[in-house]
Amino acid sequence: xxxxxxxxxxxxxxAKGLDVGVNYRNDKAVASFTKAFATVVQRTTVEKLKNTQxxxxxxxxxxxxxxxxxxxxxxxTVHSGRVEDTFLxxxxxxxxxSKNIHEHVKExxxxxxxxxxxxxxxxxxxxxxxxxxxxxxxxLATLLKAEWPHLVATHCLAHRLELAFKDAVxxxxxxxxxxxxxxxxxxxxxxxxxxxxxxALQRAFVMMDFKASIMPTRIGWTRWLPHLDRSLSAFVKGxxxxxxxxxxxxxxNAKAEGFAKLxxxxxxxLYLLQxxxxxxxxxxxxxxxxxxxVSLADAYSRVAVTMKGLVTLKSGKxxxxxxxxxxxxxxxxxxxxxFNPDDAIMEWMTSSTGxxxxxSRKRKVPEDESQVTDMTAPGPSxxxxxxxxxxxxxxxxxxxDCSDDEMNEEVVYHMLKSFD
Length: 420
Fold this sequence. Notes:
Elements: H1 6-15, H2 27-50, E1 55-63, E2 69-79, E3 82-91, H3 98-111, H4 115-121, E4 122-127, H5 131-134, H6 140-147, E5 152-155, H7 157-171, H8 174-192, H9 195-207, H10 224-237, H11 239-249, H12 254-263, H13 266-289, H14 296-313, H15 320-332, H16 342-349, H17 384-387, H18 395-399, H19 409-418
Parallel strand pairs: 1-4, 4-5
Antiparallel strand pairs: 1-2, 2-3
């Protein structure tokens, strides 16, 4: 918000009955107020730095609306075992080279009168993996180590996760991934830039009894994985309506026709469902790594748990028929609130795999009576019918549903669970 709106805000506050006075109601006054507040806040930051034994700093680039490159600097300190990340400074270096950024950092330290503190307490540095930051010959980390030989330079964990995901995608099916991104990005811009298409989609949601319109969302913002996860969730939840509206508009809109073909490609849909399961886990890891209080030890444990979860996604097998059933239920069935299970229950009871009413699984009585802890508790029957073990079906045999076509059952299970 521009400082020039301050005078208008004062007028609105007066209309509410607040006495704001007659002086200091222009943009120059609010600029001086802001400077005073910032000075007080910076004093608190400097005091934190003086009261800690060790510190590190994080630097990352950003761009303002004019296109100028800005460098954000944060200080990490520890007080009584509590880790704190505190904003220190944002400003422009002369250029994006490591040398000029290094000079900019030292100027900031001198401006805030913390050069001596940083000289004796700085032990760590974190940035993204750009060459001007982590370069082995002339990167900022190398220039800092020339002055602080003990400095530990760390590649930002959240950035490394993004790069690892992109590398993994390139090693799998890059064409399918690119088609998926083309579909998600194209749907966002189709409805974001065309009011006509947007209103048509909203009417389709109302016609199909959705409580709210689930519009396609944008991917590729600053937190890339969380935005991709949100975009995939919106696509899957609104899939039926999106396909209906795209097919309806395809008669007079070439873009809608192309997106309708992609959205009805069975192989692409299966890929998106699998991608959603993987991205959901990585998204939670990404958000965790961005927390202020996270340490390298915490991050290592969380990464190990996530890796175990990803391995679990590969451990199941599923027949093509079962996969087809799950995808059909997820994409075409009505919502849980509108679903009537009576027909499905009757279909199951009359099928060859259904069970009669009152059926309960019979369990064997332990041969060694010492294994029974409570003889008075109700247990399995020992009648002749109970001894007919040939009619029993083990849990493993009852749940087995595999074929030569390998597919991840856990992927679809977690995906269905997250879309309820």
